[in-house]
Amino acid sequence: MSALSALQPISHPMFTLHKISVQVKRDDQIDEVISGNKWRKLKYNLLHAKAINAKGIITFGGCFSNHIHACALACKQQQLSAIGIIRGEADNQDNYTLAWAKHWGMQLSFVDRKTYRLRNEKSYLQHLQQQYPDYLIVPEGGSNALALIGMAEVIDELNQQSEFDTLLSPVGSGGTLAGLISADKNQHKILGISVLKQDGYLVKQVNDLLPEHAKAHTNWQLMSQYHGGGYAKFSAQDAQRIRSFSAVVGIDFEPVYSGKMILALLDLMSTGYFPAHHRIVLLHTGGLQGLAGMFERGILNPNEWPSLPAPPVQ
Ligand SMILES: Cc1ncc(COP(=O)(O)O)c(C=O)c1O
């Protein structure tokens, strides 16, 4: 089986200084839109939807959600209908992320924060399923048991591509990390970098997602100190450090997910966390479309970041 994404060695003066080798698992290159962990997490969900003859998918996300953006196109490609339950106001519906989602045929349903908070509640989901009996409900970020099967394939590919000691991945809902842990047979260390500030519940959430056979795995750790102020928060200096790193290694990272992993890598390295000759793999989870929302809100200057495909004409 050939790997879905490349494993690319990168060089940086810091790596030379600390005698460490670093490679990037280029899941960002899987597809221009359905990239990174989105592709992996959607794969078996969409196959399942087709197998049960579902009319489509219902899923959840914020106004700038990478998952909503990717899911909309993936459903269109698979001839499935898509309904996105979006946290926030309908006046966001023309932003970059949602304009594309609509363009690809996703029906958007805006809900207030209180309603959105019910997204994992059994009774709310039962009600939703009654309302849309022909649809498969996929949780926020796609993180369910089927997503883990897709994420596990990253480890299968890596095992064929290279030997390594530690795999780093950004963590939001925990599905990506749980999938990686589930497939690793305790032969590597898996470091999850939380991008959220109040992440006290995350270790339990990852454990709850893990299949029985992986619940005893001790090969992983969640690092909570690299959220940089909270979800989608970062200082101008940190944004600059991510851009500088990208310029040196020749790979773009964004500051909400993969960029925080980069800042964690640099910090851990400078504090001597990794011994000499350690072999690191960084999982590039994609998410570059999320830059558009930050350009739109004036948080980032588009001239300093990679350009994105123009938004669709409404
Ligand atoms: C680009 C990107 N990277 C990483 C993550 C984190 O993945 P997870 O929610 O599975 O922890 C997300 C989340 O949704 C994401 O969009």
Concise synopsis of the structure shown:
With 314 residues, the chain is α/β, with parallel strands linked by helices. The protein is built from twelve helices and ten strands.
3D architecture notes:
The protein is of the alpha/beta class. The protein folds into two domains: 7-32 and 144-304, Rossmann fold; 36-142, 3-Layer(aba) Sandwich (Rossmann fold), CATH 3.40.50.1100. The chain has helices spanning 13-17, 36-51, 66-77, 96-103, 113-116, 122-131, 145-161, 175-183, 202-209, 236-249, 258-270, 290-296, and strands at residues 7-10, 21-25, 56-62, 81-87, 107-111, 135-137, 166-171, 189-194, 220-223, 279-283. The protein has a six-stranded mixed β-sheet with strand order 1-2-10-7-8-9. The protein is globular and about 60 Å long. Bound molecules: pyridoxal-5'-phosphate. Pyridoxal-5'-phosphate binds next to helix 2, helix 3, strand 7 and helix 8.
